[in-house]
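Sequence only, no structure available. Ideas?
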Amino acid sequence: MPYTGKTVTTEFRGGLNILASEHFQFIEGGATLDAAKFGAVYIPVGTPIARNTTTGFFEPYKDTEDAVPEGFDELSLLNIDVESDGRTNIVVGEVLIRGSVYDAKLPETVTAAFKAATSPQIRYVKHIKQ
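Reply:
I predicted one. Tokens follow.
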């Protein structure tokens, strides 16, 4: 559950499970999402994020010419969905830094450059129906 310092209630959404294995690791101590950078939006599970080394806050990941942008580190995936109001920063604990995820369940913002930068810590597997 995300923490914003405000008392809010939200309806259940999604229930999407991106994890493809039971072996995974979340970032230690959680991550603070920069609400101003995300804006007033619904942030779905599987969203790629990166830490701005200047502010220390996590922002939506964006490629620059098929490479990881300068000034960012700690590339990771959210394993929780979040409602951002665009003003109040959000602390989340379910930030995936190691494990296997279903490629087809991720948002389109998970690009080839992001996958290359996070591999082999994060494995992107195909879901095979039998």
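The longest strand covers residues 95-102.
Hope that gets you unstuck.
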